[in-house]
Design goal:
Chain lengths: 235, 704
């Protein structure tokens, strides 16, 4: 299985402080890869690099075999990369309907998008006219995730979907993520609380201080090591 | 009744214009997050262009309309978007505000430069030759009917664009979260362009429609916008229908005040100031929510050392003394303003720099100080100077009370409205009596101002007054520096960083804001009094909102957090412009553009020029050879100039060149700094993780 999204030796910096020291990651179509690690490890930065929002110092970003290093976020979005950013990935002053309208720039039409989103998350249909900023946290995440569902991306990048949500809601959201992957989308999930994703992912990578310290199948061995890695000792 | 109807129709047609302009303002604000203070100025410029094409060059009206509305206005909007706003897009609200204020100030100066303000430029109404409609007893001219029809069309068109189209959603989304717009595959830059084009076109339509009914004057037309601002504030800068409603209220109010206000000496100004009053009230009455969204990069506020401050104060006084010893009487009056307006500019440091309160009425406060000193200090008693400071401080506190609820753009608007109320109404009121006390302002003309008595000495010559002003600036700078180091200063900065956090930490917002407004206004009042002494006689015009904008701009460019800003702003505002005029007298109008252009520098230097200056000159000030050498040569040069051995140009140019040369020399002498110490916990983050680090750590742990 060849990878759809490849990060090759990515180094990236905030201001002058290097935070990613050569990250290698492959995500194949239909695969869910979990990117785990302690706070400040560089997970968000990795996703932002993959979406073209953050510049790289060196290394390559390859999408479906094509080198896309240095491309605009807009071009990457049109090439099928969909990043649901940390926090709420919605436009708070726009209504739910207008938020959905903003998902039409990558190809699909308005009716189709509304149909898919409302079918998956019926609550959004009931709130269609409401400003997204006034939705509950879970509803906002559903709206954000709807972009991943409805725009038919090739690569879906999710950053901390669980932030501030009840476990039940998180479980439901990740079920949807699993379903997206089954349709052939390459999914890269960043999650602080490993338990939430280890059950649905096919592959896990642990990022510590800007380096992938360990990756492999999310079996017992990796789980046991995780707790040690979270304490920050790299030995 | 007929009269009532007639005034109503006049009011509605004015309202229609305000609605068009106001909706342009709302459009750019909701779609780019920029409150465009120069919106009215864009309309003004369009009106002038339209006049130039039709009356000036005799082009047919339709052609001129097409050229102005479809070519010039969009082009102008694009230029503004590209060169004025995109550079500061990532900076804070204050910087974006400053850019549009710079634009306002620059456009007025440009219009005055191109179109001589002393020539009358009447513009005919549209279809002036057609017979007006009769609606019962009322008469509606074609111009009025067209105006109202245009407003309705604009309302419908905008509503559809913003809320029914994808482009509209894209424009609104770009304010919420520009980065996210990029992630969805849309183009935030395009959205910004479209709204600037449309906004400028709306301003142009408004300008062209209103110009025939008023005099074509740059400042006046730009400030007609106050009424449109009021309308937009009715709509809380976001709702178009409420903006239209606000426009109707303002338009009718103005019209009925014209018709029914009693005629006496005190009230005509009220009619002119009415929109500003209403703006002030509307700001207070309507709750304001800032647009949601994240940004805000707060500038650092340097802490001056006690020693550094004293050295700086000495430099200020020496500079004043040197200038005073060399300049002729006329130049003393011109350049004396370096120090008096410097004091006014310094008042921005505690207010805007520390407490984060952007006020546009500091020069008005200076005007109050000047007037009080002029009337009370006619015999030079020093207590009158204290009174001038206190009265200005009281006025500042008065502004602070209502302004307590406002912040950011709204505070800037409120203080601008206050300045306009002073300009147009309060400053024009003749002397009156309250409880037997005669209160006089500008006496509807000018006020004569004399110098103070100090240690039995009457300071009256330009020379003495310049040194006096320099000493005052030095003392005020020391005071502001002390404030920065004090507990209150730290509290003000906490207040700037987050008002909510400040309040939850137990700080009293009311006391802090009133105190800092009073303090800043007191300083400005002192500056005004000094300025008045130097000028000998002052008029209200010298302290108007428009006159104050360039000082604000230069202060911002200097860096609002820096105590040295008083001297910098005074010098930069007074020095180059007058020096240029002295060299090339024909450029008087052109140089008025300079402060506006200076705003552009902000994009490159968000922390301000003063702190950069400091960094650049620090090596020289610490050098044990270069500094004494510089001082000796400067003293020698001064002696030569004083003895008339060398001329002005050799002296000023030579001193400057020498200082710069010595600076580079001192720079080069400095040994290269060692690698900065990085604390252990940052190893691997601030610098590369090295293999030997592990060993160092292990040893440290074992030893400890
Ligand atoms: N805008 C920024 N400016 C400077 N440093 C930053 C910035 N954003 C992140 N960093 C630094 O980069 C490093 C990696 O940050 P990143 O947000 O990628 O971590 P993360 O793994 O997503 O953490 P978390 O689990 O807390 O979200 C951190 O040390 C952080 O302090
Ligand atoms: Mg993160």
């Amino acid at each position: 299985m060849s990878a759809l999204l490849e990060l090759r030796g990515i180094r990236a910096a905030h201001e002058r402080i290097t935070v990613l020291h050569g990250v290698d990651l492959d995500v194949a179509a239909g695969q869910v890869v979990a990117l785990l690690g302690p706070n400040g490890a560089g997970k968000t930065t990795t996703l932002r690099v993959a979406a073209g929002v953050h510049p790289v110092e060196s290394g390559q970003l390859v999408l479906g075999g094509r080198d896309m290093t240095g491309a605009d976020p807009r071009d990457l979005a049109r090439a099928g990369v969909c990043l649901i950013p940390e926090g709420r990935g919605v436009f708070p002053n726009l209504s739910v309907r207008d938020n959905l309208l903003m998902m039409t720039f990558t190809g699909r039409g308005r009716e189709e998008i509304e149909e898919i989103a409302f079918a998956r998350f019926p609550v959004l249909a009931r709130r269609a006219g409401q400003a997204a900023g006034t939705l509950s946290g879970g509803e906002q995440q559903m709206l954000a995730l709807a972009r991943g569902l409805a725009t038919d991306p090739a690569v879906l990048l999710l950053d901390e979907l669980s932030m501030g949500l009840a476990p039940l809601v998180v479980g439901r959201l990740y079920e949807q993520v699993g379903e997206i992957a089954r349709q052939g989308v390459a999914v890269l999930v960043v999650e602080q609380f490993a338990a939430a994703v280890l059950d649905i992912c096919d592959h896990a990578a642990v990022l510590v201080r800007g380096r992938v310290e360990r990756q492999g199948h999310p079996d017992g061995g990796l789980r046991a090591e995780l707790s040690a890695l979270y304490l920050g000792s790299s030995t | 009744m007929d009269q009532f109807l007639t005034f109503g129709i006049v009011g509605l047609s004015t309202a229609a214009i305000y609605a068009v302009i106001g909706s342009g303002l709302v459009l750019t604000y909701t779609t780019t997050g920029v409150f465009n203070f120069a919106h009215g100025a864009a309309g003004m410029l369009s009106a002038f262009m339209y006049w130039q094409l039709t009356v000036g060059w005799g082009w047919p009206v339709p052609v001129a309309l097409v050229v102005v509305l479809l070519v010039l206005a969009p082009g102008f909007g694009l230029l503004v978007e590209r060169f004025v706003l995109r550079p500061v897009q990532a900076l804070g609200e204050a910087e974006r505000l400053v850019m549009t204020v710079a634009l306002l100030s620059g456009l007025i100066a440009a219009a005055r430069w191109i179109w001589d303000p002393n020539v009358a430029r009447p513009l005919p109404m549209f279809f002036a030759d057609r017979k007006p409609f009769h609606l019962g007893p009322a008469v509606i001219t074609w111009h009025q009917a067209i105006t109202m029809a245009v407003a309705v069309a604009v309302a419908i068109g905008l509503r559809i664009l913003l809320y029914r189209t994808r482009a509209g959603a894209e424009m609104r989304a770009a304010v919420d979260d520009r980065a996210l717009v990029g992630l969805t595959g849309a183009d935030p830059v395009r959205a910004g362009r479209v709204s600037w084009i449309l906004g400028t076109q709306l301003a142009a339509i408004g300008g062209i429609l209103i110009a025939p009914t008023v005099t074509l004057d740059a400042a006046q037309l730009s400030l007609l916008i106050v009424s449109a601002y009021t309308a937009a504030v009715f709509g809380r800068l976001r709702s178009l229908p409420l903006t239209f409603l606000g426009a109707v209220v303002v338009g009718c109010m103005e019209s009925y005040l014209t018709g029914y206000l009693p005629q006496n000496d005190y009230l005509p100004g009220l009619r002119l100031a009415a929109p500003a009053l209403l703006l002030f009230l509307a700001l207070l009455v309507f709750p304001h929510r800032r647009l949601r969204g994240r940004e805000r990069r707060l500038a650092r506020v340097p802490v001056p050392s006690a020693r550094g401050t004293l050295v700086f104060a000495a430099v200020v006084i020496t500079f004043g003394a040197v200038l005073a010893s060399l300049l002729g009487e006329a130049d003393l009056i011109t350049y004396g303003a370096i120090f008096s307006l410097g004091v006014v500019a310094l008042s921005y440091v505690p207010l805007a720099g520390y407490a984060g309160q952007v006020s546009l009425c500091q020069l008005s406060m200076a005007g109050i100080g000047a007037v009080v000193w002029g009337h009370l200090g006619a015999h030079g008693q020093l207590w009158a100077l204290a009174a001038a400071i206190l009265v200005s401080a009281a006025a500042g506190a008065l502004v602070a009370l209502p302004a307590l609820r406002l912040s950011g753009v709204y505070l800037a608007l409120g203080t601008a409205a206050f300045a306009v109320i002073l300009d147009r109404w309060i400053f024009t009121i003749p002397a009156f009596h309250v409880l037997g006390l005669r209160i006089a302002l500008f006496d509807q003309g000018s006020v004569d101002i004399s110098g103070p008595h100090l240690f039995g000495l009457r300071l009256d010559s330009g020379r003495q007054l310049m040194v006096f002003a320099a000493v005052c600036l030095a003392l005020a700078s020391i005071g502001v520096a002390a404030l920065r180091r004090s507990r209150f200063g730290r509290r003000l900065i906490a207040l700037r960083d987050s008002e909510a956090a400040y309040a939850t930490l137990g700080g009293n917002l009311l006391v802090a804001k009133v105190a800092v407004f009073a303090l800043a206004s007191g300083i400005a009042g002192l500056g005004g009094a000094l300025y008045g002494m130097q000028q000998r006689t002052v008029t209200a015009d010298q302290f108007s909102l428009i006159a104050g904008l360039p000082i604000f701009l230069v202060a911002v460019v200097g860096g609002l957090g820096a105590v040295g800003n008083g001297l910098f702003a005074g010098t930069a505002f007074v020095g180059p412009t007058n020096a240029l005029i002295a060299v090339a007298p024909g450029t008087a109008n052109l140089v008025a553009l300079l402060p506006g252009l200076a705003g552009v520098g902000l994009g490159h230097n968000p922390d301000g020029i003063v702190s950069r200056f400091r960094r650049q000159w620090e090596p020289l000030a610490r050098d044990r050879i270069a500094l004494p050498a510089l001082l000796c040569v400067l003293a020698l040069a001064w002696a030569l100039r004083f003895g008339d051995v060398i001329n002005d140009w050799t002296y000023y140019g030579g001193s400057l060149l020498l200082a710069i040369a010595l600076r580079s020399w001192a720079d080069a002498r400095q040994t290269a700094p060692a690698e900065p110490e990085i604390p252990v916990e940052w190893w691997g983050l601030r610098r590369e993780w090295r293999p030997e680090d592990e060993e160092v750590l292990a040893r440290g742990v074992a030893a400890g």
